[in-house]
Each structure stands twice: as C-alpha cells, then as structure tokens.
Amino acid sequence: MANRNSGRYPKLTEESSTLLVPVCPNKVGGSVFRKTNEGFFVPFPHLKLLIVNQIFLMDLMRLFWVPLLLGVLASNALGSSPPKSKFRLLVVTSLAKDHRLMMAAAQPVLENLAAANGFAMDFTDDATLINSKNLKRYQAFLMLQLAPFDMTPSQQAALQQFVEAGNGWVGVHGAGLTGREFLGPQGIYWDWFEEFLGRVLYSPHPQYQTGTVVVEDRNHPVTRHLPAQFEVADEWYEFNHSPRGNVRVLATADESTYKPHIAMGDHPIVWTNEKYRRMVYIAIGHDPSCLKNKDYLTLLTNAILWAGEK
User: Fold this and answer.
1) How far apart are CA 282 and CA 47, in angstroms?
2) 219-238: average pLDDT
3) Cβ atoms within 10 Å, residue 165
4) Strand intervals (E) in 131-284
5) Could you tell me the pTM of the whole model?
6) How many Cβ atoms sit within 10 Å of the Cβ of residue 225?
7) In Å, what is the CA distance from 166 to each residue of 141, 153, 163, 240, 284?
8) Is residue 280 a contact partner of residue 221, using CB atoms and an 8 Å limit?
9) In the chain, what percentage of residues exceed pLDDT 90?
10) pLDDT digit string (tens) for 173-227?
11) N or C: which terminus of the chain carries fewer CB neighbours within 10 A?
C-alpha cells in the first residue's frame, strides 16, 4: 500500500476521527495490534481492517459507492419498460422501377426519423398488407411512390375506409398518379381517390431539373418550420389544372425557375384536402437527392408527425 501521509492526506494518529473500512490484505502482518505510518492494523483471519480518517473514507466512497449507485440506477433504467410510441406508421412502396433508388434510400431515413421522433414504423413493398384487419394496427399510412392503380380494388377499399375513419395519410410523388390512362383493359378506376387528391389528373411532367418551391402557407403544421422558399431537384409533376378551390394549398412550384412541360400558372406542389382529418400530398420526391435536402426532410417529417397526431 502506498504511503498516503504525503500530499493532501493528513498524518494519521490515534486521536484522529476514525472508522473501520475493509481493505484487501497487504504486506503488513503479525498477530498483534501494530501502528504503522499508514494507520492501525488489527489481525483478522481473512481480512485486515485499516483505520482511516474521514477524508480518506470520502475518497473511498467516491471511488466505490458512487459508481455502484450509478450502476444500480442504470440497471433500473435498462430494466424499465420502453416509452410507448406516439403512433404506428405503415409505409408501403411501389414495385415499379422508376423510383426504386429513392425508395431504397428512404427506408433508413424513415427508420431514423421514427427513432428520433418516438413513433413506430413498418416499411414494406407488399401491398397485400393494405387490408382492413392489418390497417387496424396503424394510425397513419405513407404511400411512398405507390400509385393508386398499383392496388387492387379490395386494397383500395381498405385504404379508403382507413382514411375516412380519421386516420392519417401522406402521399409522396408517385402517389399522385391519377388518370384512367394507367388502367389495363379490365381495370376499374378509383374515382374516390381522384376526389381525395383534389379532383386533378396527372399529366406528363417536364425533365428532371432544379427549381424552387414557394411555401405559401407557413401557418400549417406541415410547413410551419420551412423557409419562405427552397430549391430541390425533381420532375415537377403537372396536372390538368390546379387543385386550388378543392384543397388547401401549402406550397407551389415557381415555374419561372425551371422549364415546365405545360405551364400550369398556379402550380400547387404540396396540399391537404381538409375534408379529411389528416391528409397531405407532396408531389416532389423523385430520387434520393431529395432525402439529403434538409428542407425536404423537414417537410416530410412534419407531414408524417402531423398525420400521426391523435
């Protein structure tokens, strides 16, 4: 044992305020009580007791009891139940190849968003999970590049029932591909979805290019924390007319910042249909680059959290 009479430790004497503290056996031996410059030792069958002053005792408590207490607290924390998720989100993607890179990149991004914001998420490309029984497990649905015509009539009916029951819906990019031209010879057109989206039909989009999104409504929870405008590279989906009048427009495309296919003039790009409790469509989001755009991520995060609110 090192000599602790040097430095900040005072010299030990018989008159010191002392307590008995167990220590590991050391070289001090003998069968009689002996005084050393380190303290007083008493013989014991398997343990020697060192009489130390209170200053030394406080150091021992700091070295041993504080870590022990912290360990107990940590153990209790680990053993406690995890916090309950705010809501559960089902993300269903498309099997189409057009957006496969974006969808693949989106999974880890959405997983991180879920972990950071306290909601649970299931991510799949299996549209058979869109059924009434399974949807009862969720409070929000993210239609990530999944077009309405990618679903069977029974899947469409289940999602419609889910939305009309007051649950949340977020549609991204390909989710807005309305129009009968996408149907096969025996296809049945989903009229409800066209009304749900604001009574608009998709029309051919311009080439992929960088343009500016103008945030028109900064009071809505989906767009509240966005700047007045931001740039993003996208396909800039166009429609046969503006949905304004049927929906609440949150953001528009500034067509002067890129070359449209057929200029719409009034070109909403993010909107919500307030006939439904929690519905928001985001027309931009073609490729993985959007997921590295902080403003787009803010938009997507806000949309999901708002859709999942009770």
Assistant:
1) 73
2) 97
3) 11
4) 140-144, 168-172, 202-203, 209-215, 229-234, 238-239, 248-254, 268-272, 278-282
5) 0.74
6) 13
7) 11, 20, 5, 29, 25
8) no
9) 68
10) 999 999 998 887 778 899 999 999 999 999 989 999 999 999 999 999 999 999 9
11) C
